[in-house]
Design brief:
By secondary structure, the chain is an alpha/beta fold. The protein folds into two domains: about 150 residues, Periplasmic binding protein-like II (D-Maltodextrin-Binding Protein, domain 2, 3-Layer(aba) Sandwich); about 160 residues, 3-Layer(aba) Sandwich (D-Maltodextrin-Binding Protein, domain 2), CATH 3.40.190.10. It has 14 helices and twelve strands. The strands form two sheets. Strands 1, 2, 3, 4, 6, 7, 8, 9 and 12 form a nine-stranded mixed sheet that branches. A three-stranded mixed sheet has the order 5-10-11. Helix 2 links the parallel strand 1 and strand 2. Helix 5 crosses helix 7. The two termini are about 35 Å apart.
Length: about 350
């Protein structure tokens, strides 16, 4: 479901008349990640109230967001899958992290509440491969001996669109399962062995909530908003970790961001003891030489707000804001990478 962040005419007129003359109000256009939609929406509303400038964002998925920035129809794309440095260089783009979160397995099982069911990466891979097809399978019972689970078929739900959330999910499954790596692999979209598709984090959330005995994967904020039951996932240290700001932060801070060209870092499967194993980063992607300089300048004003005062909104929604040292690295990157980014 595509959602465009837009002010109503009345709200726009009120904001413009109060905060800035209409002739000077900028309108930034962005598109991409559904993973980060809730926080970008919140940032855009707060930014509009502060400055009068509008940020319109289409929640269309990471792959579509990258396509739209490449086509020059938006001022920024947002993706949960980082582009490789050589790809950025070829296309005249730069990227930088804006927020951290996590991809969470969610279930609809009678009598099973949030945090009660446990998974390993290998078990999740086997479920999505169709090798474990029933909730009464011994592999699930072995991890959950005290949990009453139905003798029912597992209804697998996955994304139908190109997705950074999918990228992080299958990237983790490929690290946890040789079978998954060989048979399915990685990417923003894959040939799913089993299951039914839904569009966006919103669609997967809705489908899991609707269908009994289902399993899906969504960004943690959607778990909270939809009141879905989530599972714990075993990390590399052998601990079953709940999704939380603390466990996402443990994963994000275990990597050396300063050493990574163009911030090309994937933070899942962290070795840190308290790290949630399917943590993820959303990146903003912009042209080094902007198509519309005025809009690009307004976009950087938006990002300065988001990574500064806007950090509190990220925390309120269950995301993890960038630590101060990384924020400074991002600003230094702007200055040397983007025309008008200083």
């Amino acid at each position: 479901m595509n959602r465009i962040l837009a002010l109503t005419a009345a709200a726009a007129l009120a904001a413009i008349s109060t905060l800035a003359p209409a002739a000077h109000a900028a309108e930034v256009r962005g598109a991409g990640s559904t993973f980060a939609y809730p926080i970008i929406w919140k940032w855009s509303e707060a930014f509009r109230e502060r400055t009068g400038d509008l940020v319109g964002y289409q929640s269309v998925g990471s792959s579509a967001g990258i396509n739209r920035i490449q086509d020059g129809v938006v001022d920024f794309g947002a993706s949960d899958k980082p582009l490789k440095p050589e790809e950025l260089e070829k296309r005249g783009l730069g990227q930088f992290p804006i927020v951290f979160g996590g991809v969470v397995p969610v279930v609809n099982l009678e009598g099973v509440d949030a945090g009660q069911i446990r998974f390993t990466g290998a078990l999740l891979a086997d479920i999505y491969l169709g090798k474990v097809a029933s909730w009464s399978d011994p592999a699930i019972k072995a991890l959950n001996p005290d949990l009453k689970l139905p003798d029912a078929k597992i209804v697998v739900v996955h994304r139908s669109d190109g997705s950074g959330t999918t990228f992080n999910w299958v990237s983790y499954l490929a690290k946890a399962s040789p079978d998954w790596k060989q048979q399915v692999g990685e990417g923003s979209a894959v040939a799913w062995p089993v299951g039914t598709g839904a569009r966006g984090n919103e669609g997967v959330s809705t489908e899991v909530k609707r269908v009994k005995n289902s399993i899906g994967y969504v960004e943690f904020t959607y778990v909270v908003q939809a009141k879905l039951a989530y599972g714990l996932v075993q990390n590399r240290a052998g601990k079953f970790i709940a999704p939380s700001a603390a466990s996402f932060q443990a994963a994000a801070l275990s990597f050396d961001w300063a050493a990574a060209k163009d911030f090309f870092v994937i933070i899942n499967d962290s070795p840190a003891e308290g790290a949630y194993p399917i943590a993820a980063t959303t990146f903003a992607v912009m042209y080094k030489e902007p198509k519309v300089p005025a809009n690009s300048q307004a976009a950087f004003a938006f990002w300065r707000f988001a990574l500064g005062e806007g950090e509190k909104y990220a925390s309120e929604l269950g995301y993890v804001p960038l630590p101060p040292v990384l924020v400074q690295q991002v600003k230094d990157y702007w200055a040397k990478t983007f025309k008008g980014g200083a």
